[in-house]
Hints:
Blueprint: E1 7-11, H1 15-26, E2 30-35, E3 48-51, H2 57-65, E4 69-72, H3 79-88, H4 95-101, H5 104-113, E5 121-124, H6 127-137, E6 141-145, E7 155-158, H7 161-170, E8 176-180, E9 186-194, E10 200-202, E11 206-211, E12 214-220, H8 226-243, E13 247-255, E14 261-267, H9 277-280, H10 285-294, E15 305-313, H11 314-318, H12 321-325, E16 330-334, E17 345-354, H13 361-367
Parallel strand pairs: 1-2, 1-4, 2-3
Antiparallel strand pairs: 5-8, 6-7, 6-8, 9-10, 9-11, 9-13, 11-12, 12-15, 13-14, 15-17, 16-17
Bound molecules: adenosine monophosphate.
Amino acid sequence: MLPPGSTIGIVGGGQLGRMSAMAAARLGYRAHILTNEADGPAAQVAAAVTIGDYDDPLALRAFAAAVDVITFEFENVSAAGLDLLAGLKPVHPSPAILGISQDRIAEKTFLNGAGVPTATWALVEDAASLDAAIATIGLPAILKTARLGYDGRGQARVATVEAAREAFASLDPKPLVLEGFVDFACEVSVVVARGADGTVVCFDTVENQHVHGILDITLAPARIPEEIAERAQALGRQVAEALGLIGLLAVEMFVDRDGSLRVNEIAPRPHNSGHWTIDACPASQFEMHIRAVAGLPLPPATRHSDAVMKNLIGPDDIARWPEILAIPGLIPHHYGKTDARIGRKMGHVTRLFPRGALPGAFGIADALGPLGVAALSA
Ligand code: AMP
């Protein structure tokens, strides 16, 4: 158990690092951020910062020397960088887990090997394997880069062989995976934490709505039958156990129209679909993350309220900040980013409801005031 006053090193300087650093501070820890961006969201609230590239051995060494334990809010550190860090200080989650989550091929191979269902998929390396993949998976399908894709980038939905060939030519880096298109009823996720002593806790299953591949709204709890929600949590626990996780893990899933679940992606870090926990749970995903990494006991992942979380994305949403602050009941979270580029996550708002009182779509749009206009067609 890491004593208060110790320093937790967080690789990555974005909003996930910012909210993790704030949770660490509340538990008496100092957060030290490794980031390539001076004055980013995490650096603004941290006790210390190392500015450097995530693969620069000098920066990694300086960072490791200054901290007691290392964790991540950003996954795409090279294997060599991870090995270097792991040779110097305890790293949670382990580099092996990060390696799995960085690569859709390794991820799906691991999940399927652990008995966890995913969309059907096939490896695509060249023109011949693309044709073979289309023959086995069928169309429509989604062609994705195995590495470095996020928020809907690095992927294309393809309905014809021609479109698949065009997408193959334009998507980089190779290799790619072709995934069968899942005609899902909804998308859900769970956030699960596992401590060094093997304790596993899992937040309630939530429902996620994406716009242009970016998370827009999370509803807690998901509006699905309890039995499916429990199966989603069981899958989350199963993945955490199979990985031997120490830390926090988000598991995104599709709910098929027949009620079956398929895992889309795992992320061994706090997740946008868990931001609601800051306001609706006694211990948020960020506190669970820090507790797991610091070897503290994990409290139950209890939810005291129902919640709706809405992302504030790009210049248009964040321009409404003054308006948002004036809406009673909206809990505002600003990430401190100065450059509001299109598609960039600038902040989020949460609205709480008494347990069991999460309204239907119209009520939620209403509750979000002007932010809810475009929200929730379902
Ligand atoms: P990803 O980058 O894999 O998280 O995908 C981003 C979003 O694209 C997901 O949240 C889904 O809305 C959609 N998507 C991804 N893969 C599939 C699939 N195999 N079938 C249907 N929709 C998908």
